[in-house]
Fold each of these.
Amino acid sequence: MSETTIREPLLVELSSPGRRGVRFPEADVPAAAVPEALRRTSLPLPELSEVDVVRHYTRLSHFNHAVDIDFYPLGSCTMKYNPKVNEDMARLPGFAHIHPLQPEETVQGALAVMYYLQEYLKEIVGMAGVSLQPAAGAHGELTGVLIMRAYHRSRGDTKRNKILVPDSAHGTNPASSAMSGMRVVEIPSDDRGNIDLAKLKAECDDTLVGLMITNPNTLGLFEEHIEEVVQAVHDAGGLVYGDGANLNALLGIARFGDMGFDVVHLNLHKTFSTPHGGGGPGSGPVAVAQHLVDFLPGPIVEVVDEDEENGPTYGLVMPRHSIGRVKAFYGHFGVMVRALTYILSLGGEGLRQVAEDAVLNANYLRVQLQDTYHIPYNRLCKHEFVAEGRWEDAPGVRALDISKRLMDFGFHPPTNYFPLIVHEALMIEPTETESKRTLDAFVAAMKQIAREARENPEVLHEAPHTTPFGRVDEVKAARELVLTWFDWPQQG
Amino acid sequence: MYTPHTPDERRAMLAAIGVERMEDLFADVPAKYRYPDLKLPPPMSEMEVTAEMQSLADANLTVQDFISFLGAGAYYHYVPAAVDHILRRGEFYTAYTPYQPEVSQGTLHAIFEFQSLVCALTGMEVANASLYDGATAVAEAVNMAYHVFRGKRPKAVLSPALHPQYLATVHTYYDASDREIVVPHEGDPTATPDALLDAVDDRTSLVMVQYPDFLGRVYDLSDLAEAVHARGALLGVAVNPLALGLLKPPGDFGADIVTAEGQPLGIPLSYGGPYLGLFATRKKYVRKMAGRIVGESVDTRGQRAYVLTLTAREQHIRRARATSNICTNNALMALAATVYLGLLGKDGLQQVAALNYHKAHYAAQRLAGLEGYELAFPEVPFFNEFTLKTPLPVAEINRRLLDYGILGGYDLSQDFPSLDRHMLIAVTEMNSKDEIDLLATALEAIAREAAA
Amino acid sequence: MSWKVAPHLKYTKNDEWINPEDGTVGITDYAQAQLSDVVYVEITVSEGDEVQQGDIVATVESVKAAADVYAPVSGTVVAINEDLADTPEVVNSDPYGEAWMVRLQIADPAELDGLMDADAYQKYCEEREA
């Protein structure tokens, strides 16, 4: 224990009693007394100067990998470049300093932002209505499941409680379904990586709420029988929910609405270039077909008045049979500003170029790596593909070792151990913003690692070598559970 | 723009893949769906898009254009310059969830600090890496309490004086599930905390109150905590974190779960989001808590290091049996709150909390003295927000106040018909004495004109 | 690969074991190896609870996975191993001994006949690795 070294102290260790980083003006009103029973007696916060704080977080920032630093092929997360202009737009005072409860006539610009974004997203996915309120992808899923249930109940169809989820699905799909009290049934994949159609049909009965399906799926493959899948679910009276996590592959290529989907959630922080922020804030708008429009969470923005001179007036409206709110206010507005800026920058043709280049890049990597890495479902992929990180002649090497070694080349690793149906999965999503030069460097690194796996596996097991930190002991963290600095054995 | 390939490079890459045209990459998409004609505006240059967005921004009036007394769950506070400078570092905002600790210590370290600061503020033992906002944090509290009792206590009793949008969110999440959501005196937020107890029985997992409540009132909750615990349930308290610079933290009076809207801690109003959900509890319940959690450990080189821990609770492992479906947190907003608290520190937070308190009390005293106006709860303590009875409908007053350049308080009749002519007024460090005096002058004039 | 089995125990397809003599229940060496380092054990039943065969009696977590432990047979819970909360690592080091999780008073000994003996279980483990 005592030999542990400290690379960067915590705020509490940098603290000096009496120091502070911000001064506020003196009160210009008389002091009011706080009743004794309610008054706080101690406030154990650290005390630092502005210089202390700025240097501390600047140093910490150097410990992160980020899209702004280098390639980040984290499958299913769409780590594309986040344009700088988007950041500036979200910080315009006219957007950053408006209160969500201001009178609507004072925030027509903000409502227009939301209205345009609603309209554009509807057009992009081919749906009739959209709510921007959900805060993230998983939140959008929960919203979508609640909408499906509300729809069935509104028709007096109350015995439906089953949601079908492919075994390749993101864990959030079954978790979101279960959280809303649904019964989850997993459907296996077939040997081409599609959902097993026979097994799907066997589960399509009158208890079916719907199917949650990701298309392209988490193997990066377009669902080859999508028309039959949708038909089977609809024939049973169920609804089809599209997890839009992988929409990047379909922008301007195909639309969920045209394919017969009833509900879809989008991830603005993936497809529409809003930054991931180290794990949020995201934004997970939900779009629906005409028969579900009235069930959307609200309020949403509509044109409430229109005159020739002044143009449209926007207002916040609650859909008629809305499931209600899923969070306070209207969603992550700051994220919406960024996404709208992105859509306006690219236009329809730019969005299609995004999808084409994302798919081009993924297939290029797949083809370059297919002789070195086993790719279990090796066919034309969309925005990503899944390789196996294991070889028979390198028995001790696992996907995790490959991932850690990639860090030594300055790359973020692919997604590991997901989807669950591939052994030692390495899920690689390059995105459209990477140049051929970057992709070639990545291919060279992956090939070198494959050689090292046979010739010098130790260098993989001990990786990473060049990062500021080595592998972290997760077992110790989970067994000892030091979750705050108050958990330390002795303070100070 | 953001796609770097030249036509030559595209051709070379297509050749390497073994297809001729870009369209061949989409051969698996049924032809009838392929290449829809998207009715979107043509692409814009950065100059054009900046002008377009600027014009939309200019169509809004901001709290900087007004003198604002609007709160009701989102507050205009001063954000020190250094906060946004840290947030604008690409190393933070263009990273993802810190799954790979070797290249994510910046984010992980900051989240550990965030968890520690949330515990310092609330007096609790553990906190997660944040949730979406104050509303969803309450919904997760309901969920957590349900799991603590393994579903054997399906009922949650929620105070009618919780933020109405938090209550609405909880209803949306659970009304059609096997959780029982009970809001005694729903629609009448004037009820006091002890009025909840009749609904608390041995099927109740959670009693949830707000501190200060939606009407601004601050009650000593010690007796409630005792009574709730005597019935075997947990006490959840939704707080304004800034108020805890001055007020006794919920951990001191026996809260089991503390949630908060973290927006007052250095996050701009931004028309309602992104904000920050805070969530803290006692260590014995940590495995039932939703959201990411960072723990301290050591790396292979003997360096102190941080890592996501207790991940077996989460959806990517448990799938349908996870504690919650939550995946991301609001990490960048948590970083904002961490930097904000780091900059203010103990003295700074106490000072800004005191400024809010003093100014709100000055305002309350000024406005209560006006003809036709009175405090709705003159005997009950408050922090920076209080309820004022008005002689006219609040909507009418607020319309008139705009002429004075004042953004009036929240019209409570929007949520509670019984609170017709009740205005919820927020006063923060951003309001000067002169502004408060102007509000008093304006309210007085509006009442006088109406009477005339 | 080979995994320890104990000759006097009976085994389930879900990798639990039960001692027919005293009714103690735990998870097997194979199961702990699949989970890797166990960091937490939660016993989800209390003394006196009646459980049916297949009911969840405990949950075991490692850093990578979580597994539910099901009652191999029906019975009444007569004891739970409270020490495991503080020493989850014994699930890895001594799965058939110190890491017992609950003790059942077996309701119907005939249910034991439906479980595997040590040889059959050993074979079952090998099949899954093939």
Amino acid sequence: MLIKTRESNNVVIFDIEGEIRRSESMQTTLHNLVKSHLDRGTRNVLLNLEGVEFIDSFGVGEILASYISTQNLGGKLKLCRISKKLLLIFQITMLTKVLDIQEDCEGALESFDKA
Amino acid sequence: MANGRLEKLLNRFADVRGHEAHAALYLSGFFFLITFSFYIVKPVKESFLIGLVNPAWWPYADLATALLIGFVVALNARLLNRLPRRTYISVSILFFIGCLLVFWYAFDVYLKSLVSTPVADSSGGIFFVWLPLTIMRAWPVPVFVFCFWSDVFIAMSVTQFWIAVNDVFDPYQGKRLVGLFVTGGLFGGIAGSSLAALMVFAKLISAGNLLLVCPVILALALVMVNRVYAEQKQLRGAAEAEVNPVQAGARVGYLESFLSVKRSRYLRLLAATLASAMVVGSLINFQFKFAVRRIFTAADDRTLFLAMFFLAILVVSTIFHLATTRRVLRTFGIRWALLVAPALLLVGSLAVFLVSAGALLAWASLIRGGDKLFDNTLSQSVRELLYIPVPADIKYKAKIFIDMFVNKFATGLGAGLYLVLYWLSGFAYKDDVAKVREIGILVVVFLCLWIALTRAVYAEYPAVLKKDIRRRWDEGDKIVSANVDVDLTRDVFDALQSRERSTTLYLMNVFDLVRKNNLTPELKEVLGIKQDELRARSMDSLFDVGGEVLFQSLDEAIVDKDFASEIDLIFLLPSYQEVMEKRLAEDAGSASEVDRIDAAKLIGLMVRSPETLRYLERFLQDPSPEVVTYALRSAAVHRRAEHVPLILLQLGNPLTALEAQGTLTDYGPGIEEELKSALGDESEALEVRRSIPVVLARFGTQRSADILLDELARRREDVEPELIDALYKIRADRPEVRFRDKKVRPEILFLIGKGYAIVLDAPGRAPGGAPAGLTSEAKAALDIKVKRVFDLMTLLHPPEDIVKACQNILQGTRKSVDYSLSLLDDLLDYELKALLFPLIEDLPPEERALRMKKAMRLK
């Protein structure tokens, strides 16, 4: 898994590529990365999942933990460009009730401004 | 004057901030001029009443005001409804100026006995003859009209002043600045009464002509209040500052004002409290009059004594106010400040039954002086503060009714009670001491009522205040647990992943879903469960009993209610155990990660035996995080003490930490002591120690809370966030867990001190120079620190209130921040407020640094 970080209008965007799974070797976890940005004052986080091919239960746990940490500080965490198959699983498991999933990242960025 | 210098000057009287200094000064000046005028009008009124009306009729003046004030309230409410606020106040002041000129003319006509000679052919001339004659014939009615007018003048002017304060300042500002306004009012009273006394004493001006001084003073007040609104318009912009005729659509009439009070329990209690205080004041006044009449028989002596007495009250009130009001409010808050006046008056009133006749005047002067003293200072400040949390549209309506109608009605009620007592008790045949004591019984009754109502008002106050503070966000974990079945989600994703990996694992995972009744049609669709796929090829070895294939189709099988229990029975078969242990032996040594995962998962389905537990131990140390994850789930099923150290090790691996936390949670509170040891062991990996508080929080026992607090007391920064998060969670989820003040408070103060360090050590500060503003990083660090302080405060105070206050202080609007500070002002004790507020208030850097240093000295 590769995570690139950029910033746009007070939103930190994580462009994630590859698979978010337990067996993937990584220097730091997604949750730890989000937490370090929260500690620096970031309150709006966007996860761009366009390049994500697969998520396992560990990946879901990371996304939920990131959401909880952001929410607890009064921030917003959103997802964009998620695959249709993944979206279906998210819907069935009710994750869409909690996670704000936007079709495109531009719309997601605008929705931060509106909130 | 520049804001900074003005702020320093005003800070001698109240806690004034730079941006509010001008408005505060103008409003104090406005109040000064109003009371200045009133204390010129007051001696004129008293002088005419005493000189021209029989003392037996004095109570009827109060009763008349009580009956007629309702009409004034109705008219005032109508004006307030229809006119913009600035216009409404300006028109009122102009009206009072006009009235003063008319009264001056009437008294002047009477005093000079000026009667013009009629002029037959001039209509204008006839008027100037007719008017003085009418005044002469109607005398002393103009005196009663003037008495009534002066009551209306002071009631309306003071109400309008506080309306202006509410327009300009928000609640927290109001609380800080109230001392300055009351100071302005007291100085105005002293200036007015001194000027009146000096001018009459020096025979510079007659009593009647004093009324000509007032229009000048009121004209200045008109300028002051218009400056305030003009400045606000500039500051806030025209749209916002064109302060409401009371909220559009909310028609305000007398009835509406009355109904607004009637509908709200809080306002009813407020009205009743004020009424009881006014009745007490009215009755004490009668006691005082009898005591004065008993000693001073000559009119001049009596007048001189009264003039000096009222001046003394104002001077003492000013000194008392400057020395104590602000301090009492800051130290004890509204709760105790409310009680001071009635409690001390009760003690003083009871003394009437003990004092000798010779000491009666001294006692009466003290009790009357005390009543007026509190009324002018602490009680007035507290009363106004109690209005602050009432919504603006209701407040204006209610304030008119309570301050003008209830106030005067209660004074009339006091007069009525006096009259009843007078006739029933045969006052005419008793000496003055007996009369004073009998009135004293009524005073004590109403003081007790006042105290009871005070408690009732305060009980409602926080709830009214809290209505204006809402939660800005909910906690993430609560949102997740309310909307998502996390275990199901994990099982679904595991099943999906395992489908690509191993049919055995896949079917075991599907079976987990079946057993939990979670395999919905939609889920089956996503998992791609089809008849041919579900033919249990690789499961044959697991589920084949006596050569018969158990499943022809999982689709069919899963609708069978007995499906899960049949599978469970198979797991219990000794032959099954025997076969599977052989399989475990093969898989445990396998180089294939998939085989080891299968085996690790399988252990959780098997009956515990020394052999299976040995394999489980091995899998818990497997190099593959996937294998360890399944092993952890199996460990959660068997829950063996010997596995705990291995599980603790997995807390240090970010890939397995969450699963390990879940496993340890399933072990239950029995492992608290092992967790405590690991948490306190600095040789343990930091990530392990950081993960333990989550587990203890999930246990949520008293012991877990104590372990966390003990660890927090060791003040190791590396685990501090996790410890506080865990304690906060326990407090939120388990209200029955108790936290002792003496253990929590030092940690709160310690954290506040760390917050101070962030501010005081902010970069960019020259040595010995003024501190710079915080960088964004320092601000973020401070926000996190403040949140932790609040999280810890939930252990000692109502969590919902603290969380709301915290969220609004960190991310609220200016108004919600002020409401939050007001709420904290009520909730927290003096020490905590003194230390916390410099950290959370919006202050200029220099001011913040000064306050922090001052607070640290206090600490």
